[in-house]
Design goal:
- By secondary structure, the chain is of the alpha+beta class.
- It has three domains: 239 residues, GroEL-like equatorial domain (GROEL, domain 1), CATH 1.10.560; 96 residues, TCP-1-like chaperonin intermediate domain (GROEL, domain 2); 151 residues, GroEL (3-Layer(bba) Sandwich).
- Helix content is 46%, strand content 15%.
- The protein has 16 helices and 20 strands.
- The relative contact order is 0.18.
C-alpha cells in the first residue's frame, strides 16, 4: 500500500502465483505423478504402456524414456523430471525408469521431513552429502568388465523385461559385436552403427553385418545378385548429361545432325562409365543422378550400379569399405576404390536392400532388425538401442556393478551408517536418501507380485554376508547377482544418482511459482489495427448488381 492507501502492484495481477508450502506441495505432487506413471514398468516383470498419438499411431513399450518423451506433459516440475530421464538416456542409455522412480521417492521422503519441521535447505544439504557418498560407494562396488562375456551379460540385463526378452542372447551378442567393431581409441561412437528395419521376417533372423546395408538395389534387374570381393566406386557427381546453366537453342537442319548430336551425347556418357571400368570397379554407388544408358552400359560389363544414394549412406559406405567419394569422375583411380568380401542384393522387383559384407576394418557396421509386424520391429529397435548404449558404456568405462537392486541396497545400508556420523538434522535427510534408494528393489518386487516387506528385510539380512545380493524375481530369493550375470554399467548408476538428486534439490529450493496467464491471441491496441493505416482499410462492397 502506498501512503494514500492505494494498492501497488509489483507484478501483473492477472498472473497466477503460488507461494510457500502450497508451491512445494504442488511441485512434489507433480513429480510423484510422473514417477507413478512409469513405476509399474520397472524390473523384469514390469508392465507395458500403450501410447496413442493424435494420428492414431500406437506405441507399446515399457521404456521409461520413450513413455515420458511421447507424453504431452505441461506442468513445469513434471517436465524437470522428464529431463532426468532424457539426460540419462543421452549419457548412459539405460536406467531411465529407475532414475525417475528414485527422483520421485526423494521428493516424497523430503515432503515427510518438511512436514515434521525440517527446513528444505537442510534437506537439500543432506541430499547433497548423501549423493556424494552414494557415488563413492558405487565406485567401490564396481568390478572390471573387459571380457566379451561380461559385455554380453550387461547388454542382456538391459533387455530383460522388454518384449524382445525371448531373444535377449541373440540381441546382446549382436550389439556387443557391433560396439566392439567400431570401438577405437577408447570410444565407441554409435552413429557408426546403422539400424536397418526389415518388416515381415523373423526376429531370430536379426543379424549383425560387418559392413553396410542400404535401401537400394541395382538399376538393372539383370545385375548380378552377388559379387565376391567387389571393388567399389563412390561417385559424388551426376552421371548424366549436364544441363546448360542458361537457356540455349540448338538449330538442326538435317537428320544427320540429330544423329551426330545423339552420338556425341552418348559418347560423353559412355566416357564416364569408361573411367569407372578403367579404375577396376565392378560396383558403383552414385549420390546423384545416373542416366539409364550409363547403367545399361555398366550392366553389359557385369558392373553393379545404383543412383541417388543418400549422403549419409555415402559416408557410411566410405567408412565401411575404405573408399573415397570422388566429385570429379576423371580423378577416379584404383586408390579411391573401396573393398568388401561380398556384395549381395536382396531384391523384390524394384525394391530391396544391398548388403556389403565382410568389410575388413570397417568403421561403420549395420544391424538388420527383422520382425513379423511393424510394432514388433519397433520394439526390437528400442531394445537394441538400449543394449547398444549399455555395451558402449561398459566398453568405454570397463566397470560394472551388480543389478537386481543389489547395488542400491548396499549403498542404502552404507548411507545409514554414514548418516549417524554426520549428526544434526542433515542425518535425517541422508537416511531419507537411503530409503529412496531402497524404493528401486521394493518396486521391482512389487511389480513381480512379491511381498515388498519380506523382500526388503531378506535383502538387508543377506547383505550382511554378500554385498552383491539382489532380488531374483523368479524365486523371490536374495541371490548373488554377479554370479547370475545380472549386471549394470557403473555409469548408469552414478548418473542416475547425480541426475535424480540434482532434480530433487532444484524442486525443493522453489518456494514460489509465478505462472503467466495463457491467451490464444494478444490484444491489439486500437491504434495498431489495420483499418487505421492509410491504404489498408477494408474495401467497400458493392451490393448492387
Amino acid at each position: 500500500m502506498d501512503k494514500g492507501g492505494q494498492p501497488v502492484f509489483i507484478i501483473d495481477p492477472r498472473k497466477e502465483q503460488t507461494k510457500g508450502r502450497d508451491a512445494l506441495s504442488m511441485n512434489i505432487a507433480a513429480a510423484k505423478a510422473v514417477a507413478n506413471i512409469v513405476k509399474s514398468t520397472l524390473g523384469p516383470r514390469g508392465m507395458d504402456k500403450m501410447l496413442v498419438n493424435p494420428l492414431g499411431d500406437i506405441t507399446i513399450t515399457n521404456d521409461g524414456a520413450t513413455i515420458l518423451h511421447d507424453m504431452d506433459i505441461e506442468h513445469p516440475t513434471a517436465k524437470m523430471i522428464v529431463e532426468v530421464a532424457q539426460s540419462l538416456e543421452n549419457s548412459a542409455g539405460d536406467g531411465t525408469t529407475s532414475a525417475v522412480v528414485f527422483t520421485g521417492a526423494l521428493l516424497e521422503k523430503a515432503e515427510s521431513l518438511i512436514e515434521k519441521g525440517v527446513h528444505p535447505a537442510v534437506v537439500v544439504k543432506g541430499y547433497r552429502l548423501a549423493a556424494e557418498k552414494a557415488v563413492e560407494v558405487f565406485e567401490k562396488l564396481a568390478v572390471p568388465a573387459r571380457e566379451r562375456e561380461l559385455l554380453i551379460k550387461a547388454a542382456r540385463t538391459s533387455i530383460t523385461g522388454k518384449a524382445s526378452e525371448k531373444y535377449s542372447n541373440l540381441i546382446a551378442e549382436i550389439c556387443v559385436d557391433a560396439v566392439l567393431a567400431i570401438h577405437e581409441d577408447g570410444k565407441a561412437d554409435l552413429k557408426h552403427v546403422i539400424l536397418s528395419k526389415d518388416v515381415g521376417g523373423l526376429v531370430e533372423d536379426t543379424e549383425f553385418v560387418e559392413g553396410i546395408v542400404i535401401d537400394k538395389v541395382a538399376l538393372d534387374k539383370k545385375a548380378p545378385l552377388k559379387i565376391v570381393n567387389p571393388n567399389i566406386a563412390l561417385i559424388d557427381a551426376p552421371m548424366e548429361t549436364a544441363k546448360t546453366a542458361n537457356k540455349a537453342k540448338l538449330q538442326i537442319s538435317t537428320v544427320s545432325d540429330i544423329e551426330n548430336f545423339v552420338k556425341q551425347e552418348d559418347a560423353a556418357l559412355f566416357e564416364m562409365a569408361d573411367y569407372i571400368i578403367r579404375a577396376g570397379a565392378n560396383a558403383v554407388f552414385c549420390s546423384k543422378g545416373m542416366d539409364d544408358k550409363v547403367a545399361a552400359y555398366l550392366q553389359n560389363r557385369g558392373i553393379y550400379a545404383t543412383r541417388r544414394v543418400k549422403n549419409e549412406d555415402m559416408q557410411h559406405l566410405a567408412d565401411a569399405t575404405g573408399g573415397r567419394p570422388v566429385r570429379n569422375i576423371k580423378e577416379l583411380t584404383e586408390k579411391e576404390l573401396g573393398h568388401a568380401g561380398l556384395l549381395e542384393q536382396d531384391r523384390d522387383d524394384e525394391q530391396g536392400k544391398t548388403y556389403l559384407r565382410d568389410c575388413k576394418g570397417a568403421k561403420s557396421v549395420s544391424i538388420v532388425l527383422r520382425g513379423g509386424t511393424e510394432h514388433v520391429v519397433d520394439n526390437l529397435e528400442r531394445a537394441v538401442d538400449d543394449a547398444l548404449k549399455v555395451a558402449k558404456c561398459v566398453v568405454e568405462d570397463g566397470m560394472v556393478v551388480a543389478g537386481g537392486g543389489a547395488s542400491e541396497m548396499e549403498v542404502a545400508l552404507s548411507l545409514r551408517s554414514y548418516a549417524s556420523s554426520v549428526g544434526g538434522r542433515e542425518q535425517m535427510a541422508i537416511a531419507a536418501f537411503a530409503e529412496a534408494l531402497e524404493e528401486i528393489p521394493r518396486t521391482i518386487a512389487r511389480n513381480a507380485g512379491l511381498d515388498t516387506i519380506n523382500t526388503i528385510v531378506n535383502l538387508r539380512a543377506k547383505h550382511a554376508d554378500n554385498k552383491n545380493a539382489g532380488l531374483n524375481v523368479l524365486t523371490g530369493a536374495a541371490e548373488d547377482m554377479l554370479e547370475k550375470g545380472i549386471i549394470d554399467p557403473l555409469r548408469v548408476k552414478v548418473n542416475s544418482i547425480k541426475a535424480g538428486s540434482e532434480a530433487a534439490t532444484m524442486v525443493l529450493r522453489v518456494d514460489s511459482m509465478l505462472r503467466a496467464q495463457r491467451t490464444d491471441m494478444q490484444d491489439v491496441k486500437p491504434e495498431h489495427r489495420a483499418s487505421t493505416y492509410e491504404g489498408m482499410s477494408a474495401p467497400a462492397l458493392n451490393m448492387h448488381r
